[in-house]
Structures are given as C-alpha cells and as structure tokens.
Amino acid sequence: MIASPTAAPRPRRSALYLPGSNLRALEKARTLPCDVVILDLEDAVLPEAKDVARAQVIAALEQGGFGRREVVVRVNGVDTPWGADDLEALSRTAPDAVLVPKIADAGDLARYDARLSDAPAPTRLWAMVETCRSLFHLDAIAGLAASTRLAALVVGGNDLCKEMGAAMGGDRAPIQAALTLTVAAARAHGIAALDGVYNALEDASGFAAECTQGQAFGFDGKTLIHPNQIEPCNSAFSPSPKRIAWARAVSDAFAAPENAGKGAIRVQGEMAERLHLVRAEQILAAAEAQTPSTQDPS
Predict the structure, then answer these.
(1) Quick one: how far is CA 117 from the chain centroid?
(2) pLDDT category, 14, cuts 50, 70, 90?
(3) Rg of the chain, C-alpha, whole Å
C-alpha cells in the first residue's frame, strides 16, 4: 500500500460530474471553470454503454488538456461486471484520483487500494460516503489515509437517502448527522471532504442555500451535476478576506525559523497546531484559485 505523499493542496470548491459516455461532455470538461472534473463511469452511464464510456474516458485522459483542473474518474463497484476492468484500465492511465462507490467499511476501501497497486504513486483514491454502514465506520475509513492512497471523502446524498428510506428536504435534516460526521472524519485524518449534489437544476436559490449550508458544515467544496452550478459554487466556497488573512498568518508563523519542528504555536492570540496549518494551506490554495491569474486560457 502507498501512503499519501505530501503535496501542495489543491482547491476543490466545485467538482462537476460528467458522463463518460458523452463525448461532447468530455471535450467541454477542458473549458469549464470548475476545480475538479469527475468523469463518471458509474451512475451516469447505462449498462450497455459502460465499455464505450471506459474507452472514451481513457482516451480523454491520454489526450490530456485539462489544465489546472483535477481529473477524477468514478468507477463502477468491483462487485459489478465492469469494476475490475475500470480499475485495471485506470491503473495504466493514471488520473489524478479514482473515486470508488458505495464503500461500507475500511476493508472495502483497502480492497480498492490493493487493486490500484500498479498505478503511479500520484494517483489518489477518493471514496463515496453513500451507504448506511459507512456512517458507522467513517473514522476507520478516513484513517486509512495514513497507509493508502485515500485523499478525499465524497458525500452521496441521493443513495444514502434512498437506502435510509428518507426524504431529503430543503434542510437535509435526515442526513445532517452524516454530513457532519463525514467532515469530522476527513478533518481528523487530514483529507478533503466534498458535499453531495443538488438535484433541482432550476432552483438557484435552493442551490445557493445548500452551498451555504455545506460551507458552514466545513466542506471543502461541492459535487455538481450541471455547468450552471459551477460559478455560484465557486463563489460560495471561496474563502473570505478574513479567512485568507488568518490562513496566511498561520502559514507564515509555521514557516518562521524559530518555529521549525514545533507542533503547536501561538498565532494571533490563539493556539495553532499542525492540523490548522493543513487547513490554512487549503484555504490559501482556494484563494489562489479564485484570482484571474490562475485561470488557464481555456
């Protein structure tokens, strides 16, 4: 198993799902202002189109051209007819990350990690939180970040509500505990946490409210199902000037020679630990992403 390497934090304010079976969508992914594109081989692809979708996604990865965007591929589960082939193909083409569905416990995640053993070290593993069982194993799942490729947890609210037999509702009351537990597990082990999708494409105010809720819960960003959701999502998850100032102060303080090797220091009258430095670096990465100079020409 490959432990996660130390890497510069990347902004993940907006992560757009795009069906791997749609060539036009794959081409458009290179021009959209999202931080992450998730090329989907699972829910967005009909069974009869799975093999074609995989071939098209592999070709898109080999062609490249996604600029600063993080490229993630959501695979089919290993218990499906397509999952093993998905993982084998992606081990050779090395996307930034592989997103695996319907994790139940740490053992599930470890098996996916083992199947990616031949992939280049930079390829990360992201896990969907969308089963009832996973909620009772989140700490153990996130804890594998120390010994596997795991780098992010992604909420799958639709599947979670379906399994629970719950109705989502505007405030997402039935799954609020799941949302906060996902963020807590991610923060405890230094990985990213992304909120689930919002289904009502014509409800701009509802989408804005859910972005605000997700940001308040502590998510790094949100998964999306339509390009029209990107800009408001980026805005909602971009850090405020006050948060940027705090993050810069923490980063500068830990970089000072007199603080080398210290696990906790005093910053702006408060104690800051190394975990706060990780969060500060994530905030600064998001702040850099919202400036025009970081946008690629596409």
Answers:
(1) 21
(2) very high
(3) 19
User: Structure tokens of 118?
Assistant: 């031949």
Q: What is the dihedral of CA 82, 88, 92, 94, to 10 degrees?
A: 70
Residue at 3 is within a domain: no
In terms of C-beta density within 10 A (0-12 exposed, 13-18 middle, 19 or more buried), how is residue 102 classed? buried
Q: Are residues 254 and 269 in the same domain?
A: yes
Contacts of 267 (CB under 8 A, 6+ apart): 249, 250, 253, 276
Least confident range from 5-19, 92-106, 151-165, 195-209: namely 5-19
**Model confidence at 6: pLDDT above 90:** no
Collapsed DSSP state (helix, strand, coil) of residue 234? helix
Task: Calculate helix-pair angle for 176-188, 204-217, nearest 10 degrees.
Answer: 40
Coil/strand/helix, residue 152: strand
The residue range of the domain holding 20 is 14-237
Are both 212 and 90 inside the same structural domain? yes
Answer whether residue 30 shows pLDDT above 90. Answer: yes
Q: Decide: 75 and 17 in contact? Cβ < 8 Å.
A: no
Separation CA 239–CA 172 (nearest Å): 24
CATH number of the structural domain spanning residue 103: 3.20.20.60
